[in-house]
Amino acid sequence: MSNAFQEHRAKYREVVSRRYGVTPELYDEASRLLAPLAVPFSMRKGEYLQRIGTPAQYIHWLHSGVTRTGFITDAGNEVTLHFQSDGEPVGAHDDLLRSCDAVPALNFVVAETAVHGYRLDWSEVSALYKRNNDLRDYYLGAAQRSIIDQSRRLYLNASPAQGRLIAFRREYPGLEQRISQKVVASFLGITPQYMSQLLRQDGSKA
User: Fold this and answer.
1) What pTM value is reported for the model?
2) How far apart are CA 197 and CA 118, in angstroms?
3) Within 10 Å of residue 162's Cβ, how many Cβ atoms?
């Protein structure tokens, strides 16, 4: 199974190493070190990889499929933070950090399509980070990229709805065809009805 995980990760070497600002060699070394911890998993659409109220336990690596991370407001409204798809790590980073103190997760992660990939126990991954300088450098690159992405999404939220839709399509090319319109509206912070109106306007300009 270790080899299968490494072979899968190798497909995304160039893209992910460039995104994280690490060398392909460091990416391969991280894959080799993490491989013994990787356990294959599959979930159907609508199943939860992480639930609110339970300490986060796993980080996942997607082989295929789409997942969505979000939270529920005090008013009971569902807010979508971001999506993950083929070749990406899945997990609410802040919840994983809180789990060290057994603090319940504030975010959910749900399968928006059938998903397949590998699951790694976060406590084991964290312990490995602390023991290995190469893996720590890889994690730093991933964490810095996460901060940049989060900052960009904050600016996105301040844009008009049409601008947010354009930015969504730019950030997640092709994803709109794989998930429901309702979920896209949740990410944009608008109602499904307004989403339909935006799409009609968009279609009239085509």
Assistant:
1) 0.86
2) 39
3) 12
